[in-house]
Amino acid sequence: MHSRLLSFALVAPALALVAALFVYPLAFSLGSAFTVQGGIGLDNFAKAFELYQTDILFTFVIIGISTALIGALSIAIGGYLVLGEHPLAVAALGWLYRWPLFVPFIVAAQCMRTFLAKNGLMNNAIVSTGLLDAASTQSFLDWRGIVITFVWKQTPFVALMVAGAMAALDRSTIEAARNLGASRARILLEIIVPQVRATLMVGLILSFVTMMSVLSVPLMVSGGTPTMLTVDMAYRINSFGDYGVANALGFISYLMTGAVAWIYLRETMRARGAA
Amino acid sequence: MNRRSVLVTLTMAGLVLALTPALAQQRVTVNVMTAGDQNMVEYVTDYLAPLFEKQNPGIRVRAVGTGPGDAGSQKIWERLDAQRKANASAWDVDVAVVHQRMAGQMVQEGLLNRYRDSVDTGKLVSRDTARKALGTDVDGYVLPMFHSQTALAYNPALVPNPPKTYDELVSWVQANPRKFGHNGIKGGMSGVAFVFGWVYANSPNPAQLMEGPYDPALKNTWGPAFAKLKEFNKNVVITPGNAGTLDMLNRGEIAMGPVWVDMFYTWQADGKLPPTMRLQLLSPGMPGQPMYYVIPQKAANAEAAKKFVAFATSPAIQAEGIVKRFNWYPGIDAQHVQSHLDHAAWERLFKDVSPQDLASKGKPMPISEYFKEIQEAYERQVAN
């Protein structure tokens, strides 16, 4: 009993911080989402759906695509680091792939803005090689730009986790498969990935949640509609002082991340149960 | 340290504190609180304050920025409102620089000093925005610091004969798809202003939108204007922000787009935009807006504040600071500023948009109710 009290006292400061900085504002914004003139109601949600339903869907699709691409790329990077046969290439990749990790989202967005534009760095480089003529280039500053920026920025994070997990695997299974003549792709997909599945999931879920909250990238990369929910929230507040609809949109984001967090929790519980 | 020496120290500290107001009376600090981008704060601290302090020894100027857009003005209002509610006898903001919407609200709520007639430069303004702010009567309470204006920027190499009206623009865009760009309503005010101008040009009662009175039924007449805009938007590029439009013009990705005139000239001066680019103010008109110097009702240093505003709106300062350094249109009437400018500077500012154009086609923003309703109608009928 005594040690129980003590352990509670030890976590109390942390709990208090979580309560003050997270639970209270969360409850406050949820409350505001459901508050309408003179009472409780769903008007804010009705308006949020009326004006922003495409953006809700768009946000989900954009982040879904980005998460899938991040997963595929980090498996590829991690796989090459474990299975690659050219030591120089492995060393170079191992050194290079982490770089975007240290670039803030807003800086990445700013770079992409000039890199992906119609007459931007990327297209100009392609045109100068003669592969494409200047008139047929196109701008990637729309949803594709958002996806490219997200993937570029978040892949290293997931790859770092996945590559670590892959490196820690018992290599005997890989060697056994190799002895039996399995191709490298097959070893990666059928032997390695199933064993690092839990780590990969955690990395992807954390990326998903991070990307949901990014305002700078959609704001700076794409001006068009549809756009992501963070932009709509900022717009409701800055142009109308309308915290109600902004919080309703926030609540919808919570639901999306909440669903993903639930998968995450279920996954860790299962992993713990199995261990 | 023993107890006695602690007591002595405390007493002395108390004495010093008690004497401070007497010392402070010899040296007045004018607190200037300004909404807007960082350049507004820089304008006050780097340009206005040193000149003013040199002329008025004993007065110090301290500038604080509250952030861009109406949100910045909102913060100033919150501060004044809180001090009034606390029944403070003197408020700690002496001069504020605010946007139109908030100036109107502050006047209505009695937060401002009716100071204009007690300032010499008050006679130098005749433009309607000095009397009305988005439909609210602010006559006597405000002096415009500057006017900013939106206009169509274009690349004469690609567009030798730019459209002169919104209707001509529509046919031009049809003939040249994806060569015109604007930033919609979520990426900055140049796009919002373009949409307001569009509604003025395509709806039955533009004068009522700008001057009031507010009638909620009026928004039902905007349907055709927005349907036309939705059609128009299919052939344009939506750019990422005010700067995004200028960036795309610079890279030659679009040939035309609505911009803030001051940003346009500043970018040209910085070499971020080719000097060949030109401006065109579309008929029947595109919106612009002033920012106002106001003095709060219970400003602690009202007399020094008036001195400061008179200085800041004097023709010489308006010419050198507002026009030459920051490429804004002067807040006071242009003819008073002209004699303080060299020919080149005057020519540059009014080369493409003449003072006559500005008078006939420089429109105010819509009154605050329509300001919001037009944006929301755009989201509902164009963006969806």
Helices and strands, with pairings:
The complex is a heterodimer of chains A (275) and B (384).
Chain A: H1 2-33, E1 35-36, E2 39-40, H2 43-83, H3 87-96, H4 105-115, H5 121-128, H6 143-167, H7 171-179, H8 184-195, H9 197-212, H10 216-221, H11 229-240, H12 243-274
Antiparallel strand pairs in A: 1-2
Chain B: H1 3-26, E1 28-34, H2 38-55, E2 59-65, H3 69-85, E3 95-98, H4 100-108, E4 132-133, E5 136-137, E6 143-154, H5 166-175, E7 181-182, H6 189-202, H7 206-211, H8 223-233, E8 237-238, H9 242-250, E9 256-260, H10 261-269, E10 278-280, E11 286-294, H11 302-312, H12 315-325, E12 329-330, H13 334-338, H14 343-350, H15 355-361, E13 362-363, H16 368-383
Parallel strand pairs in B: 1-2, 1-3, 7-8, 11-13
Antiparallel strand pairs in B: 3-11, 4-5, 6-9, 6-10, 6-11, 6-12
Helix pairs in contact in B: 3-4, 6-8, 6-16, 8-16
- Spatial gap, N to C terminus of chain A: 29 Å
Please describe the biggest sheet of chain A, giving its number of strands, its sense, and whether it closes into a barrel: 2 strands, antiparallel
- Report how far apart the termini of chain B are: 73 Å
Total number of strands of chain A: 2
Low-confidence stretches of chain B: 17-25
Would you list the SSEs of chain B in sequence order as H and E? HEHEHEHEEEHEHHHEHEHEEHHEHHHEH
Quick take:
The complex is a heterodimer of chains A (275) and B (384). With 275 residues, chain A is mostly helical. Chain A has helices at residues 2-33, 43-83, 87-96, 105-115, 121-128, 143-167, 171-179, 184-195, 197-212, 216-221, 229-240, 243-274, and strands at residues 35-36, 39-40.
Describe this structure in words.
The complex is a heterodimer of chains A (275) and B (384). In chain A, helix 2 packs across helix 9 (197-212), helix 2 crosses helix 12 (243-274) and helix 9 (197-212) packs antiparallel against helix 12. Helices cover 78% and strands 1% of the residues of chain A. In chain A, strand 1 (35-36) and strand 2 form a beta hairpin. In chain A, strands 1-2 form a two-stranded antiparallel ribbon. The relative contact order of chain A is 0.13. Chain A contains twelve helices and two strands. The mean pLDDT of chain A is 89. With 384 residues, chain B is α/β, with parallel strands linked by helices. Chain B has helices spanning 3-26, 38-55, 69-85, 100-108, 166-175, 189-202, 206-211, 223-233, 242-250, 261-269, 302-312, 315-325, 334-338, 343-350, 355-361, 368-383; strands spanning 28-34, 59-65, 95-98, 132-133, 136-137, 143-154, 181-182, 237-238, 256-260, 278-280, 286-294, 329-330, 362-363. In chain B, strands 1, 2, 3, 6, 9, 10, 11, 12 and 13 form a nine-stranded mixed β-sheet that branches. A two-stranded antiparallel sheet of chain B has the order 4-5. The model of chain B is unreliable at 17-25 (pLDDT under 50). Chains A and B meet through helix 2, helix 10 and helix 11 of A and helix 3, strand 8, helix 9 and helix 16 of B.
